[in-house]
Amino acid sequence: MMQRRTLLLTGISAAAGGMGLAGCAGPSVKDYADQKPILDLKTYFNGVIDAWGIFTDRSGKVVKRFTVEMKCQWNKDQGILDEDFIYSDGKTEKRIWKLTDKGGGFYTGTAGDVVGEAQGQVKGNAFNWSYTLALPVDGTTIHVQMDDWMYLMNERVMLNKARMTKLGIHLGDVTLSFMRR
C-alpha cells in the first residue's frame, strides 16, 4: 500500500513538473521580430475596423459568436479604441481602450472592465498583450487573465487569439479576425 501511494505521489509530482515546464514553453514576442509586414499599432488602429469573433470553451466548443465595430484614433502617443460588440444572442457591449505608446514597441492600456493596466509589446508583425479582465458570469464578476496575441497579415487584416485563464486553469479562447475599412 505504501509503495502504491509513493508511486501515485511520484506520478503526480512528475505530471505537475511537466505542466510547469510546458507553461514556460510558450512563444515570446521576440520570436516574431523578423516577421513581415511590420505592425505599427498607431497606423493599423486608426480609423474604423470591423471584427468577427468567437469564444470557445476549453474543449474547443464555440460558446459565443460576435461582431465588433471599432472606431480608433491616436493623438500623439495616446490612442482610443472604441469597441461596440454585438453577440449572436442579440446582447451588446461596449469597451473603450485607452492606449499609451511607451516607446520601443511597448504599450500600456486601460478599459472599464480591465483590472489595473494592460501591458504589451510589438515586435515584427506581432503584438502580445496581457491583462486581467473583470468578466460578468451568472450575476457575479470573476477576474480572468488574458494572454492576447495579434498578428498582422497585411495592411487590412489582422488575426487575434487570446487565451483566458483563472488561477492558471485554461478556461477558453477568444479568436478574432480584424479588417480595416
Question: Could you explain how this protein is built, in words?
Answer:
- The protein is mainly β.
- The protein has one domain (31-180): Lipocalin, CATH 2.40.128.
- Helix content is 15%, strand content 60%.
- It has 2 helices and 10 strands, in the order H-H-E-E-E-E-E-E-E-E-E-E.
- It has helices at 2-24, 41-44; strands at 47-57, 62-75, 78-87, 92-103, 106-110, 114-123, 126-137, 140-152, 157-166, 169-180.
- It is globular, with a radius of gyration of 19 Å.
Task: Describe the structure using short key phrases.
181 residues, mainly beta, Lipocalin, ten-stranded antiparallel beta barrel, 2 helices, disordered N terminus
Sequence-ordered SSE layout with sheet pairings:
Layout lengths: L1 H23 L16 H4 L2 E11 L4 E14 L2 E10 L4 E12 L2 E5 L3 E10 L2 E12 L2 E13 L4 E10 L2 E12 L1
Antiparallel strand pairs: 1-2, 1-10, 2-3, 3-4, 4-5, 5-6, 6-7, 7-8, 8-9, 9-10
Quick summary of this structure?
It is built from two helices and ten strands, in the order H-H-E-E-E-E-E-E-E-E-E-E. By secondary structure, it is mainly beta. It starts with a helix and ends with a strand.
